[in-house]
Structure formats: C-alpha cells, structure tokens
C-alpha cells in the first residue's frame, strides 16, 4: 500500500534540514512515521507544519502534560475520522500516559474514557473548538479554571485541536497511511533485555 | 473593543523578525491587520503560522490565482463562521478579483456566486475538505481535472482550506476582531488623483 | 445577470396597485429592489407577501426597533443562506442602526456581533424559531422578559423569522439577484452637499 | 387545553371581514379550525396570512391538484414537527385524495407512501426547498418535467412549502392546538343518509 | 401492495410454535399484524425477536404502564421514520391510554403532546438513547427519579427504545407495510352492542 | 472499574442455562466477556439477546463470512460510539480476518480501510441502515448484487446492523466496560509452542 496518493520523495532527495530531522526521528522511534515523508512532497509546507507542531507539542510552559496533548489529538482526530492521526497519536498517547487502553477509549467515546475530570473538561472544550468553535464564549474558557486549566491552557487546547484539524484534513485528502508499527506500540509492556 | 480576549503585545515589545514583518505589512496595507498582533501573543506559533500562510499564499506554482486562493479562504471561513477571516479575506478577495460583490456572494452562498464553473468546482471540493474530509476519494480529485485543476491544485485547495480551518478556530476562540478598514476595502473603485 | 430564473414582468405591464407601490419604493430608495419585480411574476402572491411584510415591518406597536427587526432578518437569512435577503436587508440594517459593520457581523456569526445583550437574546430566540421551532417552550419566551422583550415581542421576533424563512426560500428557488446598490449602502457616511 | 399560548379573540370581537370569513369556514367545515382564531390575535397578519393561503391553495392554474397541494403541506409540516398542520392538513389531504391512509404515510416517511412517482418527485423537491433551499439548482426544477411538473408547478411547490414553513413556525411558537375533529376526518367513509 | 419486499411465508408453512403464536394474536386482534408474517421469513430471528418483545412488553415489574411502553415505541419509531411501527403501535397506544389523540401528538412532536411531566421526562430520556446514547450519563438516569422513574425503569425505557430501533430498521429495510386496520384502531369509542 | 452501572449478578447465582452458556464461552475465550454478565441482570432479555445474536452470527447460510459479520459490527458500533462493542468485536474481527490492522481502520474511517470493494459496498449499505434506514430503497439492495451480495445477504447486513444498534445502546446506557483482554487480542501473531 502506498503511504500517500501523492508522490512521496525519497529521503536521499530531500534538503539537508529535512533529512536531518527525519533521521533524528527515525533514530528515536526506530522507523520514519509516514507523515514526515508524505508531507515532504511540499518542503515549504513541511517546514511550517513541523514548526507549528513543535511550537505546540514541545513547549515547556503551561499545565498540559505531554500525554494530555496527545489525548486532545486523538479525540480531535477521531472526530475528524483521520486514520493516520488516531493510530499514530494513539500510540504516543498510550506511551506517554502509560495507559494501554486509553487511546481506544478516547477514540471511540471520550465520555466513557477512564480519565480524571480535568481531562474530561479538557476534551469537552477541545471538542467544542473542533466542531463548533464559533459558539465558544468566555464562559467556556472560565469553566476550565475549576480543573486547574488556565486561559493559556485553553489557548493550548484550542491550538492543538485546530492544528490537528489541519493535519487530519491533509491526511484524509492525501490518504496518508499509518505505519504498521503504530498499531501495536504502547499496548504491551516492554520486556527487559 | 479589544481585538482579542487574550493579551495583545505592543509592536515595540516584539522580537525583531516579527516587528519587521508587521511593519512591512503596515507599509503595504496602511494598517496592521489584527491577526498579526493577536497571534503575536505566542511568538513561536506566530512564526509557524506565517510560514504556513506564506507557503500557501505566496507560492508561484500551480494554477490557482491569488484571487482563487482568497475565494477558498472566504468560503471556508464562512462555513466555520469566522468573522475575522470572512471580513479580512473578503476584502482581499474583492481587490484581487476586482469584483466588489463576489466576497459577500461567496460568504452567504457560494453556489449562487457569480463565478465560472472552474471556481465553483474548486469551492465544492474545498467545502468537502472543510466539512467531511474523511469522505474525500480519488474521484473527487479526478473530477477537478475537467476544470483544469490538477492533483497539485487539489492539494493547494485542501491545504488552504485546512490551514484556514486552523486560523478560523483560533480567531473564534480568541474572539479576534477584524480591523474596521477591511469592511469597506475593495467595494468602491479607487479614485484617481 | 437575470434577477430571477422566472420571467420578470415589466413595470408597465403590472396592475395599477403594484406599479404604484413599486414606484413609491423607487422614489424613496432611488432604485427598484429586485424582490418587487421578481415576485411580481405572481400578482396574488406578491400582494399577500407585501401585506405580510408591511404588517410586520411597518407596525408601530411593540418594543422592537426597526433596526432590530432588520437584524432578525439578516440573522435568519444568513442561517438560510439567502443571498438576496442578507445583502438587501444588511443594507437596511446598517442604515437603521447607523452601524456600518453590524450587518456583516450578524451575517457571519451573530454571537460575535457588537450588539447589546437584549439584541443577543432576541437573535438567540429568533435562531431557535428558525432552526428548531418545535422545541420552543414557554421558558424560551419567558427568558426574553429579562431583556425587556414581552411575549408580544416574542411573537414579532417569531413572525419576522418565519416570514423571512418564506422569503429566503422563494429567493433561493428563484435565484433572486440582489441589486448591486445594496452591497455598498450604509457602509460609508453620507457626504453632505 | 388552550388553543394558543397567546390571547385568543372571541369571534364577536373580530372585525367584520374576519368574522365573515370565519363563519364561512365554520359553515363549510362544521367547526372553526383553531388557526383562524389563534392567528386572529393579530388582524393585519391574519389578513396577509389568509391572502397568501388563498393565493396558493385556491388558485385554478397549474397542474397541482388540491390533494397534491395538501400532500406538500403534510410533508413540510412533518419535517418541521408542526402538530397543528400535520393533523389539520392531514385531514384535508385524506378527504381530497380519498385515501384514508395517505396522510399518516406522508407524515411518517413520505418515501414509503403509496403514491405515484409524480407525487414522489414533487415531495422530493418540496423537501429540498424545506430543508436546504440554498442548494436548489436549475437541474432540480428541470428534473420535475419528466413527471409533467412545469417550472410554474415548481414555483407552486416551493411557495406552498415556504408558506407552510412560516405557518409551522407560528403554530409551534404559539403552541397552536389542532381541533379534535381533524384527527378523525377522512379516515372513515361517509355514511350515506 | 406487498407487505414486505422479501418473501412472506404462508401461515400453513410455518413451524408449529410460530403458527400457534400467530393464531393467538389473530384471535385477539381480529387480524394478523404484518410484522408477524414479514419477519417469519427468518424463523430463528423471528423467535428471538418475539422473545425480546415479550421480555420487554409483557413483563409485570417496573413502574412503566403498558401505555407508557407504547408511547416510547411511538416516539422512537417516529424519530426513525418507521411507518409500520408508528402506525401499529400508535393504535395500541391509543387503546391502552384510552386517548384517541395521543399517538399522533407523540409521533409529530412529543414535546407538544398532552401528557404529564413524568411521561415527558420518560420520552426525553428515550430520545437521548435513540439519537445519542453515547452521551448518556449517570445524571440522565438520576434525573428520572424526580418523576418516580427508577434506574430499573431507565433500563426499561432504554431497552424498549433500543429494541424498537432494531425493529424500525428491519421494517424500513423490508418495506414492511402496516395493516390497514391499525390506522383507525382506538380513534373512535367502541360502540356498545 | 465496575463493568456496568447496573448490578451484575454472580455466575453462581444465575439460572443453569445461562451459567452453562457463560462457562462455555469462558472455556473457549479464556475469560468471560463482560456483556454476558452485564446483561444477565435481566435474564429474560439476556436469553432473547443471545438467541438473536446466535441467529445472526452462527447461521451457516448466506455469503457473509464470519469476519465480514464482525466488520459490520465494528463499523456500526463505531458510528454509535459504543466502546464495548468496538473493542470486543474489533478483537474478534482481527482474529477472524487474520488482519491485525483492520479493526482500527474500520472503526476510525471504514472508507480508508484496506478491504476489497465487496466489503466496502457491504459497509456502505450497513451505514445507511444504521444512520438513515428510512431512506433505504430497492436500488440500495440491488446495488449489492454487483459484489455477489444477494437480497438475503442484504437482510443479514441489515439485521446485524440493527441488532448491534440495540446492543450499542444498551452498552452505552449501562456504561458497559470492555474486558481488558479484548484490546490486545489478534494484534500479535500467536507464537507456536
């Protein structure tokens, strides 16, 4: 199966900065997630995409844990029916949260996921941004405070939801295929050598 | 009226690269579009946003004219009920297309806009990406060819729709206010001096 | 561009009462709004339409200002994606309210319009009548009282919404074209002579 | 049970023209349909409503039979969940079409009603006008020709749908109660004396 | 008109247990409701269907009256646009509740039906189960207690709604036709001999 | 975590027939799927549920493979956001089809699943039954023939979709929790001893 309905460049043909980044990811993950190659068809967009991704997911400020950010991505991607992002970020969510069941729960019905009230409030806000952002009011942001989520956290939730809404649409349009490896990651405890 | 429900930095407090870009825009437009200041609350995201924006709207390749790209933005932003983007990009659309009525037509009901079949097909594809990207199939992309729109153009349409879906959500969540200037721009012929 | 996909009678061929009314409007507005000619294809319906229109918009009782009535029309017509009514009544709204930006705000997202709480409550009720009138309960009407809107005002809001729902559907089905003049009306302050 | 949540005038207090019309209806039907009294709370609107009603339902031109017009009303009113209109016009539909089962069939699921293809096409067009009139195109009107329905008939279908959309909203907002008599009318063959 | 688009077995060809049950119903009702014959095309499914039906509708425990159970069925079937079930169970509802108008009211708009608050709460819960069961929370069940409806009653409401959701889909897919007799049952008081 | 918000009987307290069936399942699966215990709160309904389940899933006639039946269940359950059924039947689907990725693909977006056209047509029909069965026409059934799916297969698809719609609603209302074991089943090849 092709990983995209668009041409996918070979690693060796990519500009230096892109190749370097991709090799770093490969070193860390053990494989190259297909999104890095599928979107590389458009280098300028790829660079902006990665910069946006890093600005939201690598930032050290705010109260959202890395697992919580992935949880928002999985909920958003499920709402948008994006196979690539549910599978890939579901894997990362399982690993970060150390909860092998949580990704499937959030993807099928976040209201039934075994998560604390804070994360439920977080996902409720994210889903409103995802599906009817024009109805967001100040009260929606204020309601998050009861769960220790500040207005800055609200921005983070909204921005992650909005950015992955972009990502979901590109993955859906390009028919981006998740790497087989993601499906199983984080489901079984790592065996020690 | 505040231009955002989040803190808005002053131009003088921004990093050099951001200030330079903003001043350039001000020179060209005669005022600073509020999106530049509202999103500047988060410099790293601002830079990624502008890089993505430029990658999609300043690129010289592909068959989409600058006016057509703005038309996609207006249709997407209307579907997402984003006041800032409908008003700001509606202004730019009027100017690029030299059609003072087209932005309101596209915003209210693109099916009734006075545009050629090519632009209608373009908007039909954009709206499917906007509202149900998970149903996009190869046939949707192939159907564009009859209107001189290649698969690369389809990517452009999808990417613009997806990126402004992000932009719409951020504008809605931050309650971003369009500059008053945009409402009137492109509606009246410039008087010669 | 034709102003309707149906035959449009010439002014001279219309019955006396219709011609008189149309000439009065022309005197006042400086042009004949297309709805008067497009609907004149059916004189009996035209007369009933105008009588209903006048009963709702010219009445002197109730607390709704003329600007507020136009605001309801614009919100309803935007929800029904009716190009003619958004453009034509948007113009009248701008003039009555003396607010050049308000029509676009209400049309794109009334929740973000710069209007007082009373008008927001009014539009919230109107939108419920427009989109799911079968869910209207006594509490919806009672809630308006907090904003100085009586049960009679609720009837007015509902009737205006319902009548323009009719108007929107006829304009959509006939592909009624707004006069070019409407797009710009009320956007620029009248220059004194 | 009250027949409206608004004040209902007594027949004797109504202006002469309204009382005359109502007495005529009473003579013919054997009772006064509640809509005549409930809407009489607003005489000017009542007169316009009745004029519109008569223009659409009493006209002698066009190919729509009286039963077909009632069928459109029942389908529209069911889509709008209007109890008054489904029950009252369901009764009239049964009588005009001499089909005691057809009203319930059309109200629950017009696609399963035992009606000829012409009436199915008619209802399909009506439902598009009712629910998404902004998507109506010339092809929708042209498609009716195969069933002997002209563009003028399309106007009739659209106007009846649009007018009863108005009526449905007013009945829903006023909580208009159907007369008990309507529920049974046309269900049993009249016994000869 | 056929009573199903699938083959319908003759009574004489059915297994003994099925024939016995059907003859019992015929004795009681005076005719064989078409569902018994249409579903008999698949004996094993027929038996399971009837067992489920009886477990929910013949049970003696719980606070739901037989009329209330039929009311849930009518509301559910109307939401699913199932002609067979609205007509057949509408008849039974009228008879059990001894209210000749209630079935049409519940089918068109349960919010406007002349029923006590308990039955309204019951239908509100049923409709949430019918249309968005994934959003059901403990609070929805707890809210029923104010109307004398226990958690066990909530199970009953949910199970009836869910089972007739199944029934509605089968009737819709097989184009199951309601017996003519149902349309009139319970509408007129039985005349004493 | 409780496996249901309703009381769950102990195996030893169940009637003989139920206990026997449950022990058989336990023998085969290695654990008792929670649905057997959660629904056992109502023995009569349990028996009907299992009889229906067996009639649809154990039948030897028709062209649907066991894997295909599970695929319909997963797609239906995902559309209904039923955590229990997506997780439990996703496991069985993976095992029957020997495709460790297919369940996640079908659950997130069946249109992107790596399945042959026959199974795509099967799921398209199932989703129409699930979401708008009242629009099913003979042509929908006829269209399946091109993929070797007969009218009897169409009944099977519809019945499985309808039955699991029931199951989904009960699982959602009872907050039925999937056994942890299901999440991993069929994802890794069995190691030979």
Would you kindly provide a written description of the structure presented here, covering whatever features stand out?
Chain A has 193 residues and is mainly α. Chain A is built from ten helices and no strands. Chain A is globular. Helix content of chain A is 63%, strand content 0%. Chain A starts with 15 loop residues before the first helix and ends in a 9-residue tail after the last helix. The mean pLDDT of chain A is 96. The longest helix of chain A has 24 residues. In chain A, α4 crosses α9.
Features:
homohexamer; mainly alpha; 10 helices; globular
Oligomer category: homohexamer
Averaged pLDDT of chain A:
96
Mind describing the biggest β-sheet of chain A? none
Q: What percent of the residues of chain A sit in helical stretches (DSSP H or I)?
A: 55-70%
CA gyration radius of chain A, whole angstroms: 17 Å
Strand content of chain A: under 5%
Q: For the record, give the distance between the C-alpha atoms at the N and C termini of chain A, rounded to a whole number.
A: 33 Å
Biggest interface: chains and residue counts?
Answer: A-B, 43 and 43 residues
Class derived from helix and strand content of chain A? mainly alpha
Task: Tell the overall outline of chain A.
Answer: globular
Specify the number of helices of chain A: 10
Unreliable stretches of chain A (pLDDT < 50, length at least 5) are: none
Write the layout of secondary structure elements.
The structure is a homohexamer of 193-residue chains.
Chain A: H1 16-29, H2 34-38, H3 43-57, H4 66-79, H5 83-97, H6 102-109, H7 117-132, H8 138-143, H9 151-174, H10 180-184
